[in-house]
Amino acid sequence: MSRKQQFCPPLFEFPAQSIGWNDVHLFHSWNSSYDTIWAFDFVCCNEQLCDSETVTIQFAKITEPTKLLSCQKTHKLELKVTDPLTRSNQIESVRILFSKICAIGVHDVGYDCSQSNQFRCGKKCISKHRLVDGLRDCTSLTDELYNDTCSLKDRDRIKCTFTFLGKNDTKFVNLIWVNKINGGIPCVERKKKTPHFPTICDGYVEYEEIVDGEINTDETHCENLLCDNSYTRCDGIWNCRNGADEVRCPRLYCNGIDQHPCISPTDGQIKCLSISQAGDGVVDCLGGADERQLCRRSSVALIDYIVGSYHCLNNQSNGKQINQGSLITQTTKNKCIEVNQLCDNVLDCPLHDDESSIICKGISNAPFCDYQIIEFLFPLRILLCSLDDTLKLFMWGSNDKTVPHFSLANYSISPPYSPISPSIKTIISSNVSEESSLTFNSHRQATLVAFHCHSGIPVHLSRNESKLSPKEIEKRCLCPPSHYGAHCEYQNQRVVVTMRIGSIEWQIAFKFVVYLIDNANHIVQSYHQVDYVSNRDCGMKFSFHLLYAVRPKPVDRKYFIRIDVFETTTLRYRTSWLFELVHFYLPVYRLSIQLTVLNRSILIETRCPLKCHSKHGDCVKYVNTDKFFCRCHSGWSGPSCTEPYECTCSPDSICVGSWNKKPICVCPLRKFGSYCYLLNPLCEQTNAVKCQNNGQCVPRDLRINSNSDTICACSVDYRGKQCEILATKIHILFASLPSHSIPESILLHFITVNTHAPPPGITTTEKQWGPHQRTTVFKKVPFDQVFTTVNWVNPFHLLFAEFHNNMYLLTIQTTYVAWSQMKFSIEHKARCPSIRELLNSTIVAFLPIRRVKYYHIPCQQRLHLACFHDDEQFMCLCTYDRRANCFSFNHHLERVCQYDSYCHNGGQCFQDNATCPSIIICKCPKCYFGTQCHLSTKGFGLSLDVILGYRIRPYTAFKDQPLILKTSVIVTSIMLVVGLINGCLCTLTFKQKTLRKVGTGIYLLVASIVSVITMTMFTLKFCLLVLSQLKLINDRSILISQCISVDFLLKVFLQTGDWLYACVAMKRLFVVTKGTSFNQQTSQRVAKWIILLVGLFVIATSAHEPYHRALVTDEDEGRVWCIVRYPESYSKYLNIYTSVITIVHFIGPFAINIISVCGIIVLTARHRMNARKQLSFNSHLRNQLQLHKYLIISPVVLVLLGMPRLIIVFLVECMKSARDSVTSFLVAYFISFLPPTLTFAVFILPSQTYRNVFKTSMASLRKIFHRCLSVHK
């Protein structure tokens, strides 16, 4: 008699209490008559809490004998567990099952569930929304077997055909079941587009599609495919009819020869059967091991992989020819059963061979093929269990592990492995040691447990260390921030913040300071600091509490969460966010925040509505709202940074505010504490990570437990835990492409290929195997270069480049080698064409499930073809034996940025990883480019920055600059000299009183002065652009000043000059119209008012631009740009307004000049015709053109100068990219500044009157000059 039988009753509870979920108890029996791997025999629950429909026994609860527990046998429960040998996993499986069964309490017996939305489930009522949702609410599964799903009228259900409990069924199932991450049901409406390529034509039907009555599966139309290939070889499953893929494989029997192990049906001896006798329709081995196709399914609708694994013996099958068909009918003459039906004391086979002594000698009532102990079975039992392909899946614990995955090997046979695996023994011993390590203290610990603290920690408090009598020991509670009170029984009003952070700067450590502030005086109620490093903390959620300053909080205020972020190493400020607590009246406010720190400098706002103290703070705009705040310097606080406080932080830290009359300190790396005087010792410990190659040790936050105390922040060129891995510099060259075909950016797809799974039952220490891994990165191609470089440290085997909707195969490495540098040239022969270019239209029109079986044809017909792809799922390589080897590849991968406002002007934002991006790139719409789509190339808004900026090479001598820049410098210098001379001569001429008696002279005098200013501003703008792009000017105050003033003033003076020239043309037309009735004095007064109105009109229509001008840094190019960026709330309307006004300023003067030319000619001709009627109108027209040509020349010239720019605006929409030719745009830009340089030639030279006045002025000037020389002598 065992010790259990000696000291325990036949049925006893252990542990003698509920295991913790809904009063569930575990019971043991010492007289069990069956073998089991379960550590307990019965699972019991309280009938009032859990519904138990299949009760085996009832047992009185020990602590409350009046309550009965309903018990069920453990082995009859549907408990799912990956490792039943450990007690902890078994209890966890009980918890999962009973959490579903006990999710809804039991109702009274009289409750009839009569409401229309209720369904009776034993002794409880459930909502009909819980029917057929994949979650078991009733122990009898009546909620999942419900048939009338069409009557539920639930919009969250779809029609689905699937296999359930061995039967094909069509129901309207809940989307929860279909969308479950793990193990969602195979729904017809949601099935995959194509099957897994390595399993196509492998002998197992896994995919079925019926179109127009034709059945297409992954096993039809397989004439051109081989069943014995690198994916099926030696995987333990017969994919060929004769098992050709499983010969010459490492195994216990028939190792390395063209024979299969076979159990003789007569004596049970194991022999080797020739491959020629396999798959011939004659059953030679016990269980039909040589004719496995007899028990295979042929439809995806049938359950699992097989109808039955073991082929029963019968008088017609033993050693005789068997009628071959695609699917065996279950009859007594020809029957297949499951291997676990062997030796179960049930006669399933017609000749009873399933219970014969050959098979069942020494077998207990346990399952015949227990996957947990398969390695310890007898050889005969192992061979019979190998008939069940599903067993191989269980042996590895995951269905995915035995599925063949993409490989670069043509035909590889796994090397011999040791057939004995120590893995289970290791698991058992390790779990036992873990479970036995829990200990408890004695009486003092028990008294503390009895002293209840709500969410707190009970402690002993002794006021006298020498005496520890019970009277002198007090029990206290240490309360968390969320609670207070003697027993932590009260909750604090608080804000619970859950924050997830992302940053593409993986190696930079950040410090986030989170404040709870009010709207009264921006008083900090409380704050919390978070340390973050992306390569350690990406994806981590940070949760913490922020308390209000007083209890209860004032309800007459609004409250906000403000977050500032600093770089920990340099303590440089980066950006800020503001989140309003909308429902601030809630006692506990929960706020979830997703933050992304972008790899860019903060836009310096040029206008701020706040009056921040100029010396004590800066006005900063929140990155997520249109609001501003004053970010105070160290030692100052308050809404306007006017309130001083004493900063007592350590000298190497910074003060960022005050709280409770104490400074808020931001500590540098390796410092912590309220005042940053404490040193974090983790980096100095002997077991700390030793960073190499100038890597910096970053310790963890001592408040947070982590798997590693320290990590290394590496430089750009190194990676690894110790920065020991030198990044491979991969150079992508585009020298063979025409200049206009070089892309602005490319996608690089790195594919890592993992090895095959080893044969079932054999363990290996080789590299982790599984599906291939794909990593896609974006890389910008520098403007004036024909190559780009990316640093890469992770192993990869395939590298593809993608741009302009074309794929290029750059390299194939069967074994990864970490080279220091790799160079690849983009050539046409490396292009991977679409399958539509390779196959005829008939094959292309096939369904994907059928078309994929013809993918070998391109490889066989085109001997130099290296790769190709389809439009649905696959990227394919051509192997050395000219077969297609394909793997899944999502051609439409789109990862939208977490932070949408990164890209300007409607650009699409993409990132290389959904949760932890390392690269962000913008896909710009037409007419915009730049890293953030911040540069516009539309004609009428074209600026010199956009045209010439990317042509200037930073940090390069002028002699090495492009020719177009040198030419622009020369042209600008000539225009400046000519413009200044022109302006001075015109001013000297039109300042004479004789010409200022009429309005025309006044207009021209002001226009002459404006032309001098315009050309000066134009030259200044050109010089500042060149110097800033050459990195000779880096002072951001200078750059922002010129961004606000120079661009705006240049635009105002140029437009003012254009309007003044138009006023001259209109005045001349007005003079011609009035004739002798023209009044000079009135003309003078009107001209002065018009000049004033023109100036005000030009300034008013452009006044909004300086307010919204800002600097943005292009991190990839290292350039600083001046852009106009409007707030998102009204950017659309301002952009439309700006476009309309720009067109008005451009078309208005142009149209007035044309009208004036035509009007002057027609009106003068008509006047002369009235006086001399004997001549025709055409004759008068020619005469007047000759007589008044000086009046016509100026507007005609102005019209001609405006034509090139007008043509570019309306015929050439914009520059498509930065690589487009800018010659025409640059010429048009310079032409727009010619009118200010040609005033003398346009207005003075054609007019005899103006020439005479000019000569008189010059004569006077010469006299003054000679007089000065005489006096000097």
Automatic annotation (TrEMBL):
Residues 604-642, 679-724 form the EGF-like domain. PROSITE patterns: EGF_1 (PS00022), EGF_2 (PS01186), EGF_3 (PS50026), G_PROTEIN_RECEP_F1_2 (PS50262), LDLRA_2 (PS50068). Signal peptide: none annotated. The keyword Transmembrane applies. SMART domains: EGF (SM00181), LDLa (SM00192). Residues 981-1243 form the G-protein coupled receptors family 1 profile domain. The chain crosses the membrane at residues 969-990, 1002-1027, 1039-1065, 1086-1104, 1136-1163, 1190-1212, 1224-1245. SUPFAM superfamilies: EGF/Laminin (SSF57196), Family A G protein-coupled receptor-like (SSF81321), LDL receptor-like module (SSF57424). GO terms for molecular function: G protein-coupled receptor activity. Pfam families: 7tm_1 (PF00001). This is G-protein coupled receptors family 1 profile domain-containing protein. The lineage of its organism: Eukaryota, Metazoa, Spiralia, Gnathifera, Rotifera.
